[in-house]
What does this fold into?
Amino acid sequence: MEAVAGHSAKMDTNQDEILDSVVLLYFHQDDQRLNLWEQGIESMELNGRLGLKTLFRHYTLKVITTWGLVLLENVQLALIPLLIGLAIDGLLSGDVRELGILAGVMVVLTVTSVIRRRYDTRTYGTIRVTLSKTLQQRYAQLPVSARSARMDMARELVDFLEDDAPELLTSVVQIIVVFIVLLTFHVYLGLAALVTLAAVMLCYALFHGCFYRYNAAMNEQLEKQVNVLEAGQHASVLKHFSRLRKWEIKLSDAEATVYGLIFLLQILFIVFNLWLSSGIADISAGKIFSIVHYSWEFIGAVLVIPTSLQGFARLHEITERINPEPTSTDTDACITGDEVLRT
It folds into this structure.
């Protein structure tokens, strides 16, 4: 028994040594990959005016690949409600072929989603590092407060490419698919979608200038934050965050007004579609489900558009701020630092 126990202990020790060797090898290879990646980043530099166009020009293939995966994923997502409706009608008639097609599309969708998320993280992480390195080189002479704020703002450019642009692409795909599907059910359903979309765009256009000015004022105040905190004066810190609160409230109030108007339009759209679909000849349960679902999906897709346009307004102001010289007369509409201090 002692010999068996000794042999077992020796095997456990050998297994532990093998496991330790595997772990050390993994981390060694990981360090090597990190070193190679850092060497590659050192050789990368963003030339010209920093903005969405520059980032896209330097990383065209990577960004297009991520957006292509987003497009593929969302075309499949957009087809799911229609396939569910067909599967319902098929099952009610004893046919399971539509159910099999639905299951196959959902499996492909899952694989596409996993691949896209893994690729996205690596691509946009690299872009963030390159952008931060370029900003540090260009603005090394600026105070830490302004430099830190501009680096945080500049990261929003990458966030837009990673999050907002795919979401906007998704909404465009959904709007097109919904329009085509609703049009196949009844021409008035498709026309109602177009009228609603046009009305939403008009609502946002009325508030675009407000969004730009309020973002400019808030960014101006953010550039002072590190200096205010370093000074450590309670009254100055309180005044700084009170001013940020003021501009955040103004932005929030403008957003609330825009979305309130948009939701009223969406209510009219849903009510009209429900009323019209009930009178379509030979309508089935599956088709009614598809009409209702696509009408609701249209609401979510349309809501993305004003959000993305507001993001564009903010990014335009940030682009002007992180570049040495203004190149657009739009900067005349910005609220200056002196104006922020006086308010």
